[in-house]
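Thread: Modeling a multi-component assembly for a lab meeting

Hi all, long-time lurker, first post. My supervisor asked me to bring a structural picture of a complex we are working on to next week's group meeting, and I have zero experience with this. I have the sequence lines for every component (656 residues in total). Could someone generate the structure of the whole assembly? Inputs are pasted exactly as I received them:
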Amino acid sequence: MAIRIGIMGYGNLGRGIECAVKNNPDMELAAVFTRRDPATVKILTEGVSVYHADEAKDHADEVDVLILCGGSATDLPVQTPEYAKYFTVVDSFDNHSKIPEHYANVDAAAKPNGNVAVISAGWDPGMFSLNRVYANAVLPNGKDYTFWGKGVSQGHSDAVRRVAGVKDCRQYTIPATSALERIRGGETPDLITREKHTRECFVVAEEGADLAQIEHNIVTMPAYFADYDTTVHFITEEEMKRDHSALPHGGFVIRSGKTGWNLEHNHVIEYSLKLDSNPEFTSSVIAACARAAYRMKQEGMSGCKTILDIPPAYLCAQSDEFLRAHML
Amino acid sequence: MAIRIGIMGYGNLGRGIECAVKNNPDMELAAVFTRRDPATVKILTEGVSVYHADEAKDHADEVDVLILCGGSATDLPVQTPEYAKYFTVVDSFDNHSKIPEHYANVDAAAKPNGNVAVISAGWDPGMFSLNRVYANAVLPNGKDYTFWGKGVSQGHSDAVRRVAGVKDCRQYTIPATSALERIRGGETPDLITREKHTRECFVVAEEGADLAQIEHNIVTMPAYFADYDTTVHFITEEEMKRDHSALPHGGFVIRSGKTGWNLEHNHVIEYSLKLDSNPEFTSSVIAACARAAYRMKQEGMSGCKTILDIPPAYLCAQSDEFLRAHML
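Re: Modeling a multi-component assembly
Sure thing. I ran the full set together rather than chain by chain. Output:
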């Protein structure tokens, strides 16, 4: 029997989950929940109902795993502990510094109710975290590097949109090739922010706006751009639509470490992602974690889990026997 | 209290384990076991005893995890089931096609004795297997590629050494850059053997040997070289010693896969290793698996496990809380 997936929140991530469910034959979409008027939400999957979020609890029996697609700033800190009381849940909470607090809150809700809750599924946190942990386990004497991009940063794009005279913006984060090459060569440099990434903004300005002033306001913006080398390109609305509608992303996790009696040998472990669609890849990781959550719940486990707690085989549709025979 | 490690077999891998134990502060070397005369085996760690392999069972109380450093052809199929009766063990069994059989034999020995046995720890099988499984779990619609090298293949070096007129050989396996670049670009070509790797042999010939004949015998050797483009270089014994004493290796695991309602988006996941010392890196993975085996045994688990069954956090010395706060 297929794993019945519920989706809470139908934005970019919710649609990505819907696609991931379609592409995983052992899953089926059971229901979509929204805070909007359900009548206004048109989903892609035929024959599946859209309910108001307030009704979710009433459908707990129809859903094996509820995937929470809200934002990390205000939605998930409330939603994940709330729904973990009634459902096996997965979220993609990505506010790294608040993970311990979120973990504690979710664990306190899930455990007494016998549910499994997987938090922070995605690629960072998620696949990148896994690679940091594996590389640290294997090479205790070493140094970690994480680079992001090339890809669209929604937060930085939003920040530029708030600059006076800016109508629209797409901001790309770009890893510095020179730094990557040094680390791949076995060097372990201490890099400042400016040496790791550059930023590139494609901006549609309001008619008659002072372009030089806009550029100045962007490149000097504290926290977002002041510490980076930033390039600003002014483009038309048509160019924005034509060339910058996609949400690509990716990045690199590298650990360079030493082994040997006198640490005389160097090793470089590198993991990289090159993603055409950030929300769809994130959704694909979440779907695999939903499978694992379902299995853990079936086995009688409960409480909050992260991808660091999940045996890799639990994420895969194939049997343990198949994995040992064909992938090990 | 440190995890007490025993080493069975003191060759390249055994020495690598000894170095890994030194570099992992939560481990200590308890004993080394050898089939040679223990008096002739000089180890690097001071104050640790070398015993004959036949005495191993008598020292079961002094060892938390016994690491089996024999070969996969004849040693491990016997040793791992045998020692799994008395010890928590880890091996690096790397005969991919016989893993299911080895798993069954080891499980049958470990489980009734309440021991944990981790098999096939290393990088392939091992870290590469993990990456194949994670990438398949996340991108069910896709294609896998594994490339090895640039690195020394012991099996191929040995094969050349058996050619008449050859005194010594070091054979390097080299991944084809052109194939790698196509796959990184999102293509999913069907590649024949010759398109994936090339082979390069550095050969010391016997004095007066027919070099043209040696080269012919190498490049046409079935199974080992006939299906590859192979280059043969004749060098002196001095050059061999000076330039080819190290055992570097590495490789790439890449999965290219599609997501979206109509599979319209492509993603490339790549994992790569660049290793100065193949045996020391393999040993480092084994050491991390020994830590996990120790913890699983402490929790009351038993039976045969592979790295696909181990929650990633079990491999790391740091606490779950630390990992969530700093690496997730």
